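Two proteins follow. First one:
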Amino acid sequence: MSSPSSRANEARHAVASRLRDMRLDAGITGRELAARCSWSESKSSRIEHAKTPPSDADIRAWCAACGVPDQAGDLIAANRQADAAYVEWKRLQRTGLKRLQESGVPLYEQTRQFHVYASNVVPGFFQTPGYATALLSSIAQFRGTPDDVSEAVTARMVRSHVIREGEHRFAVLVEESVLRYRIGDPEVMAAQLGYLLSVMALPAISLGIIPFTASRQAWPLETFTIFDRLRVHVDTLAASITETQPSEVALYLKAFGNMQKAAAYGGDARSLITKAIDELGD
């Protein structure tokens, strides 16, 4: 796994390469592009070689000069996230888990439409205190973070108020495997699965379960959350990745839509959850 600094460097070079390819596709030289943009030829060279990061205005001018102004949005988003897209969990969690839970509150509160796909654990805002305690304890132990699990669990429960308050809507997909993974003891799991049954009745929530046996167009992916169709957070073992490029967000929305077709809803989803509860004692 590459480091955040190397990933950021790769992202900057990717933007530079896309700008260079755009100029070549347009059939113009660096000198001609500079003239069209009213800046020096050396500036064009520095941008193309990732020595000088372009501003939003630079990217808009570059795209316009190459006759593809519609591509500016994606490139601007890619350029902005070059340093921020890949953030090590170690850095996010260096002061413990509580602050990380609290840091997400503004984004959760301002988001109106959530698309959530969970392939490994129950989504955070659906977690019970017992389940969250078991999960965050494992994370703290694995990462060697300061032990503030109880405070972090409280913060996570407070953050979860968005499922009951405000004008928020949640489209949630959970793999059936999530119902089976034992996070905590059977009693904790039974309470968690029972809580899933209760949140399904909330008017703001659409919860689908993707059965093991479902015929599917999209394979299981890393857990991700889409906020208002504008940004995606993807959780990996090593890092939290943020995508804001419209084309990348559209890709995750497409995957979500494909997986929705394989999901069970309503009574069928409840049957999958109750079956998992019944088999906890096996």
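Second one, unrelated to the first:
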Amino acid sequence: MGAGVLAAVLLVVSTALAIWYTARQDARPPSDAIVVLGSAQYNGVPSSIFEARLEHALALYEQGVAPVIVTVGGKAAGDQFTEAEAGRDYLTAAGVPADALLPVQEGVDTLESMRAVGAAFRERGWGSAVLVTDPWHAMRAERMAEDAGIDAESSPTRQGPAVQTRATQLRYILRETAAYLLYRVTGESVAGAPGIG
């Protein structure tokens, strides 16, 4: 009994440390596309979390990391816009050409969205991506992308509410640890929270 508890504790701690380590990395290899994970939008206007991700993706695009930015995410009941549309429109207004934007308007959580992105990549013969999300979400997003057939690395945003305070960071790491372990055990995702679905 004691050994089982110790093993469980070690698994949780090692996963949390891996999430923390991945959050501190910033990979920007030349890729087929930059994939921006969606977050809340309000009547077509990205939330502060989503805006921080979009601004970071824009910077990567301007640095020549990839020729296309993929915006990702569906819409909740009652919404007029998908997260992918809100992201595309934001980047269009920032000067990104229409042919350099691909909205993938599916998914209510990271897993559904990444599977839809994987299908879009296969249709176009793409294989590699740089993922843009919050630091604490990066490890799980990378895993889900790889499971969807994408050679993925992440360049997390360093701006926005998810990285403002130590308490916020700790809360996100704990939530992501639970979400990552759930995904590895069940193959399912956790919906309903910003950056954790």
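SUMMARY FIELD: The two ends are 33 Å apart (CA to CA). Strands lie at 33-36, 41-42, 45-46, 69-72, 101-104, 128-132, 151-154.
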